[in-house]
Amino acid sequence: MNPQNTVQTKVTNVRKGKGIQEDLHSLSKEVCFIVEELIERIHQMETHVTQLRNLLKPESKANKHDIKNNSRVFDHKKYAKRHVFLQVAYLGWDYSGFVVQEHTEKTIEAELFKALAKTRLVESRETSNYHRCGRTDKGVSSYGQVVSLDLRSNLSEGTGVFIPEGYQAKLGTNDEIYYAGILNRVLPPEIRVIAWAPVAESLSARFDCKQRTYHYYFPKAALDIEKMRHASQHLIGEHDFRNFCKMDVGNGVVKFHRRIIDIHIDALDDKADGYSMYRLKLVGQAFLWHQVRCIVAVLFLVGQGKEEPLVVQQLLDVKQNPRKPQYGMASELPLNLFNCSYSEENCKWVYDADSLRYVITGYQAMWTENIIKTTMLKEMLTDLESLSNIQLENQVKSLVHAIEPKTYLPLMKRQKCESLEERIEHYAKKKRIEVTEADNGAST
Q1: pLDDT surpassing 90 at residue 359
Q2: Pseudouridine synthase I TruA alpha/beta domain: which residues (predicted)?
Q3: What is the domain partition of the chain in residue ranges?
Q4: What's the helix, strand, coil split of the chain in %, to 5?
């Protein structure tokens, strides 16, 4: 068959939701790359269509009302500013990621800046000296995301306080603004500010973070937890993780060495069945795109007995295995950026009791609703399992984004993705990245 016709057929299958993984296995390395490029182009076109639709949406009455209210001029020159860290918690399941995007307003960052503008804490994003610690993807949650920015302040001196250009003196006060409290009153219920910290103007939430901790929650099902623990220990230390991520070479990422400080898999309850919940805790200095979800996917394969713990070492050996085998990532739903750590000397968190009570009350309401749904489902499952006399432990299947073939093909025997060097050469020819000798030398 003509390669172009083959590619066209595959892309059509992608649009129709057919098995992309099975299709890719049957294609040559060169055609795989063409398919990947075409899929990326399709996503770009769909994004552009969504942007145009949003531009054509009629302005709602609510928006008009907001514009009318916002027309009142607020004089920021009457206030000093303060450089602070904010700890932001969010349930990202129904959001398109943390970072602002052109084609949708349904992002955590967009909602955060709406609240900051509404409370007059910032004049604009562009003038706020804003940095974020992590870029969580669509569906990913966080308890410990941290952002740094300059906020309006009631004080004229103190850690992080500075006088902006054009400042017109205002009667001072000894009481600082209750940043968490006023933001939580206007943020959506899925997004909350837990604490704030006054910090030096030179500190950045992104560049001064010492380490990041991710949690990934999953049911035991039929997983062999001990084998997963054994396999996970090979990840500790500094390694080239190109086989445990999605390589973002098109955006200039050509170095894939990262350091895993610690990794644990712990039980969260005392149950001894497939419904018991576990947590994978992963601590590192920085992470690659989809690194945690790829790690979890491989550990699931080990836990299911489809791979041996040794496979982790094989994937980390990029000299022997420079090309990543094709495998599906684990779901984004259970992933949580749980903590971003900073020097205690430079970052002293401030907690407001009233704000914490407000957050806890809201979270308890969410917990109540969800635990009722979980309990109801569990009782129904218990009765169904007693009627069928069939013990199924498929709880993890929904957490892996991959088609399950009738005959399992081991990772090291699967179709391989392009090597890092091949990707660099491809994007360099398209002049999307510039390659130096240092970049080439960094690839092992």
Answers
A1: yes
A2: 231-343
A3: 3-56, 74-198, 219-334+400-442
A4: 40, 20, 45
